[in-house]
Amino acid sequence: MATATLRSRATNVGATPPAEFDRSLVWVTALLLGLGLVMVYSASIAIAEAGRHTGYQPLHYLIRHAIFIAISVIAALVAFQVPVRVWQQSALYLFGIGLVLLVLVLIPGIGRDVNGARRWIPLVFFNLQPSELMKVFAVLYAADYTVRKAAFMHSLRKGFMPMFIVMLLTGGLLLREPDFGAFGVITVIAMGILFLGGMNWKLFAGLVVMLIAGFIALIYVAPYRMERMRGFMDPWSDEYGKGYQLSHSLIAFGRGEWFGVGLGGSVEKLFYLPEAHTDFLLAVIAEELGFVGVLAITLLFVWIVWRAFAIGRRAVLQERYYAALVAQGIGLWIGVQAVINMGVNMGVLPTKGLTLPLMSFGGSAIAATCVALAILLRIDWEGRQLARGFKV
Fold it and tell me: pTM (2 decimals)?
């Protein structure tokens, strides 16, 4: 027996210890952040040059974006240290803080108005966008609600209505900004988690019908949304008006062809395509890196979503149901937002103000996504610790 033990120890000398977390998820996230930094600089350099009279420098957006990434990484490192049980205990309070921030942003003198939308709270060095933080809080709260109400998921009154009322309140605040895109994403997050948590399929089907009807009604009652829909249906009918942004995005995709015109070679970013470094960053990527570049980015997002659901599936097997729903909710959020942004850029979906996760310019969005991925890594880490017999 002693000989066998010594042989076993000798065999394990120099062996690579099992990973403490999903390293591929970290590398894919770092790759998207790095590529986003390069493409934001490429897409924004002309805008920064034009803003010299206001004190901007050619590296203005590059420096700001790099600072956003650094702050987001620090926030993610802090979030990773927080046990999942603490996130669950804090879910309701965090969601309440999110609602307070959504109210504050609507108060004149506190919220900042840009292009008719009041979505930002100006702080000392940056603008805070509460709707981005609300996406994280919605995942944590919806997962906690579903676990607490697991016995009532087949009940309309006890299982569905409380969450419906809460989402109605949240949606009302978001539409007052207005931020229709964030409202759509948060709705998908909440309803997706309820479905994954075992919500009665008949209730869920009825809810989907109600949501579709509600979204259509919201489009019809707001003239600017109707204009966007008309521009989406036929951007070339008014390429200098309501179809301007989409038509130039499609031109960028067309110019890129298979391999792109080369990094820095985009023409559309030269004041033709509005919001080139934010909502329409993918169009610049398509023009400069071509179909191959867009496909590579799409596959990176597919990997993140797949790993999120795989981590959630393992948590289910370990009977860590809250952690499982949070992991899958994060995957659902990033996947849906990426699909919407890509669809908008390609003309498959109506124009909406949603950024490409981890890549587009915007501090609040990057910070919220990085924190969410840190929570996902924490869930994975705790799962690996439990599988090895350690307590977490």
Answer: 0.89
